[in-house]
Amino acid sequence: MxxxxxxxxxxxxxxxxxxxxxxxxxxxxxxxxLMRVYSPSAEVQGHGPGQEVLQTGKREVGxxxxxxxxxxxxQPHFSDGHDSGLYSWEYLYxx
Length: 95
Known about the structure:
With about 100 residues, the chain is an alpha+beta fold. About 15% of the residues lie in helices and about 35% in strands.
């Protein structure tokens, strides 16, 4: 079964959510805080099992900009300077 593809991406600054619509009809509003805390970056996830780094104090984090990465991911730039996580469409669907 192919992965759902995005049809729309909207940054909602007031509610601090990223809305992503998919071609299977699903639509999700993902809180910026959740995205930042569960960033798929090595800085957050570590380089192997048990190396995860707990992220705290991210309740007020914002997204400064979002850049597409090919046809497979987004790279958000967070207001705390974090910008190394690549969020695949599959990962955003999972979140």
